[in-house]
Amino acid sequence: MRLIPADRTQRWLALGNLVNMAGTGATLSALVIFLAQVKHLPLAQAASLLTVSGLVGVLGAVPLGQLSDRCGPRTVAIGAELVCAAATCALLLAGNVWVCALALATKQLATSGNTAARATLMGKLVPPERRAALRAYQRSVTNVGFTIGALGSGLVLASDSTAAVYALLGVDAATFCFSAFATAQLPRVDRGSRGRGLAADALSDPGYVSVAALNAMHSLNRAVVSVGIPLWVIYGSSLPRWAVSAAMILNTTVIVVFQVPLSKQAEDVHRSRRALLTGGLWTAVGCAALAVSRALPTAAVWLLFAVACLTLALGEILGAAAGWTLSYDLAPDELLGQYQGLWQLIADGSSKAAGPAVIGWAVAVGSLGWTALAGGFAFLAVASPAIVSWAPTQTRRHRAAEQTGPGVVTDGSMSGTPPR
Questions:
Q1: CA–CA separation, 149 vs 138, rounded Å?
Q2: Maximal CA-CA distance, the chain
Q3: CA dihedral sign of residues 319, 324, 330, 335
């Protein structure tokens, strides 16, 4: 895929994503400072608000994903982005902790639903064989936008100015408005089916639920990078603290450069099996590198640290690419929003709830904990191909049962071609 897509639709999609993620990157680290220093909340209370609102926000994926089937993903995405803008403005004007909590929860719910709606929209904008490439390009754009925003946030926080922090959140609200405008430039796509209830169709599909859970376990890789490496640097190594920033820069660079070309290794269900195997093994190697580095000389620690950062990034790339393909190819087109919502719920629930707990335990235990993580990811990698091979048969049986049973709402079609 070209650096700048030739297709007008993909350009608007990328531009909206870039601006939106720049705003997200700018406010991610600034929110807790805003709540503690500007709104004068105790630091523990501010951190708790952000944690709880993030967990509550996960719940927005399923209902808004399902609403995408009924009203169209483009409409739902625009609405969710405008709600995010309004919630950010409410946070700026909040006069007490309860208004802050309501604004944060509303923003997180809308953000989660927007992610599901945009995933559905991207799945309908291009043919099935181009979905993985589109998602890979958009993920690279996401990382670029997030990095730009994080750099801007660093400059604002360094100024130690209350007005600058207010302005930063105001810019975040404006980015949501621009993202809604960019989404409005995209063509309308076909609506889906109403479904049988809140995620009832997706939850009753054993093949899809199993693969969604498998993807969630692979997604713990991201918690290793975002939580595990910073904690390991500070509490488990002799490296300077700026090594955390170096790790994040390396991770972002590798993803931006290699996400699109490596995503070709997961363009269909068959290739996704191998991508999950390879990606899981890369992640296991990264965890093992951190496990054996504690008692080594500093030069060796730096080398293993670089190996861990690189292999974890490769594991994340392959796992994400396989997840996109499976989330689309095992779902019926007419219920794509509902299925994407459930996929998002399971993935986000894992990364936000289980991720910090599992990775925190590994860091606390030390080398034994990292060794256990490496073994867990290796086992997950080896088991993944069998689970992915089993899932399409189960989804076909589920759709056949839906066709012959009462209350049929789908035609049983699958957007992808399962392995023979």
A1: 16
A2: 67
A3: positive
| Residue 305: predicted pLDDT | 93
Instruction: Look up residue 138 and give its two tokens.
Output: 């958009």
Name 266's Cβ contacts closer than 8 Å, sequence gap at least 6. 132, 272, 275, 318, 321, 322, 324, 325
Mind listing the pLDDT tens digit for each residue in 178-206? Answer: 999 999 999 988 877 766 667 778 888 89
Residues of the chain by 3-state class (helix, strand, coil), percent to 5: 85, 0, 15
| CA terminus-to-terminus distance, the chain | 29
Neighbours of 128 (CB within 10 A): 17
- pLDDT tens, residue by residue, 357-389: 888 888 888 889 999 999 999 999 999 999 999
**207 secondary structure, DSSP code:** H
Q: How far apart are CA 126 and CA 363, in angstroms?
A: 42
212-259 pLDDT per residue, tens: 999 999 999 988 988 888 888 888 888 888 888 888 888 888 998 999
Q: Per-residue pLDDT for 411 more than 50? A: no
Which DSSP letter does residue 90 get? H
Asked if 102 and 91 touch (Cβ cutoff 8 Å), the reply is no
Q: How many CA atoms lie within 13 A of 288 on its CB side?
A: 12
Q: How confident is the model at residue 93 (pLDDT cuts 50, 70, 90)?
A: very high
Which runs of consecutive H residues, i.e. helices, occur in 236-354?
Answer: 242-262, 269-291, 298-329, 336-349
Enumerate residues 6+ apart whose C-beta is below 8 A from 388.
211, 214, 269, 272, 273, 276, 326
Taking Cα atoms as reference points, which of 103, 113, 110 lies closest to residue 34? 103
The C-alpha atoms of residue 213 and residue 322 are separated, in whole angstroms, by 13
With beta carbons less than 8 A apart as the criterion, state whether 350 and 289 touch.
Answer: no
What is the tens place of the pLDDT at every residue in 8-66? 888 999 999 999 999 988 887 788 888 888 888 887 788 788 888 888 888 888 888 88
How far is Cα 360 from Cα 228, in angstroms, rounded to an integer? Answer: 7
How buried is 163 (Cβ within 10 angstroms: 0-12 exposed, 13-18 middle, 19+ buried)? exposed
